[in-house]
User: Which sequence fits this backbone?
């Protein structure tokens, strides 16, 4: 499963963006997520991928978020 | 054998401020505040002080315990918003009550109440005390920046107290600290020393990185709840009640999800009170006790987290 697919699964588990087609260009705002929801998703991804993500990283799209995770996994 | 909580008490200022009241002078709304924090109202001191609320809460707890102040062997107070830099709040409370035991303050921010219980546990373990009064009292509105819509909506004032007596209700307790002052702090006065290099006078208001604090809070409190439950010999899902520091309803919801606790077991007072730092847990516990919903033999966990960072949690089998 790709990083993007794993992130989408986490979003689905958290009922984020129901009824919206998720693509790399989808923004957190389009998903109706405020800053604290993004922190919650970040924390779930930290658990899923075994990494730590700074809260001030501020990705705006799912694609940017996936890039951030992949960069951390490559460190 | 350590201690049991034999009585509780609390006190809140008379004045209640709604979100609509705040929207009169801040660019905010009831909908924005409720959605992001769960807070609908907060009690705000007008003529009340940190000391007066502490004394009122202490008297309520002593009344419930059917004890007089002279029965106390130790008074521990927690606050980050005392009326004085010195003397301690505990000494002021001791004087007002007319007690004659040792009295000391602890500053561990919003985890202060758990730190106080841990200190008390040590006094019981050494056989130095039979009855201990713990009071957490805060006037967060004193250090709130009322020009900042991000933080001004969060805080309130209040005091909570417990009387501890020798017993075995306490089954586990832990406290922790991760020295990191940046995400949540309030500077002290600069002073007028002629030798002070920086002549600017800092504003003694709370500064907070909300997202970072949210992350610390959820991860720490959920792990602490699991730890203290496990040490008490139960699974976290077996807890009957969880009384957590009330910083944000979203933190309570996220922590419950993360540690596998049914959300209805989480005590919630933040909707009415806002964040009152170390006073939140004993006030919420007092509400739980006085509502008659906490029964003998039930498991209850307390957990705090806050500036420092500090954290603490405890698990009780209520007697």
Assistant:
């Amino acid at each position: 499963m790709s990083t993007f697919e794993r992130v989408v699964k986490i979003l689905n588990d958290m009922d984020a963006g129901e009824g919206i087609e998720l693509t790399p260009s989808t923004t957190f705002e389009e998903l109706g997520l405020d800053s604290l929801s993004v922190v919650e998703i970040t924390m779930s991804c930290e658990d899923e991928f075994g990494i730590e993500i700074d809260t001030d990283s501020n990705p705006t799209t799912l694609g940017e978020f996936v890039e951030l995770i992949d960069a951390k996994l490559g460190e | 054998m350590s201690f049991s909580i034999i009585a509780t008490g609390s006190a809140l200022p008379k004045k209640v401020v709604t979100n609509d009241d705040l929207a009169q002078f801040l660019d905010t709304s009831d909908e924005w505040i409720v959605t992001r924090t769960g807070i609908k109202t907060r009690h705000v001191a007008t003529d009340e002080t940190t000391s007066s609320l502490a004394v009122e809460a202490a008297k309520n707890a002593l009344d419930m315990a059917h004890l007089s102040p002279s029965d106390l062997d130790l008074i521990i107070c927690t606050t980050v918003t005392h009326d004085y830099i010195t003397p301690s709040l505990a000494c002021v409370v001791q004087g007002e009550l007319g007690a004659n035991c040792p009295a000391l303050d602890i500053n561990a921010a919003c985890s202060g109440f758990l730190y106080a219980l841990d200190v008390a546990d040590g006094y019981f373990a050494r056989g130095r005390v039979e009855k201990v009064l713990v009071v957490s009292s805060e006037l967060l509105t004193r250090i709130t920046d009322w020009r900042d819509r991000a933080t001004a909506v969060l805080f309130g004032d209040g005091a909570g107290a417990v009387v501890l007596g020798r017993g075995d209700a306490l089954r586990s307790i832990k406290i922790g600290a991760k020295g990191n002052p940046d995400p949540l702090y309030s500077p002290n006065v600069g002073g007028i020393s002629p030798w002070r290099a920086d002549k600017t006078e800092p504003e003694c208001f709370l500064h907070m990185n909300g997202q970072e604090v949210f992350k610390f809070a959820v991860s720490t409190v959920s792990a602490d709840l699991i730890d203290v439950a496990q040490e008490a010999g139960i699974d976290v899902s077996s807890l009957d009640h969880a009384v957590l520091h009330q910083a944000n309803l979203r933190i309570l919801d996220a922590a419950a999800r993360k540690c596998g606790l049914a959300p209805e077991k989480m005590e919630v007072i933040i909707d009415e009170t806002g964040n009152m730092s170390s006073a939140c847990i004993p006030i919420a516990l007092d509400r739980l006790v006085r509502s008659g919903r906490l029964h003998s033999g039930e498991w209850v966990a307390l957990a705090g987290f806050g500036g420092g960072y500090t954290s603490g949690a405890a698990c009780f089998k209520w007697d």
The longest helix of chain A spans residues 35-49. The helical segments of chain A are 3-13, 35-49, 62-74.
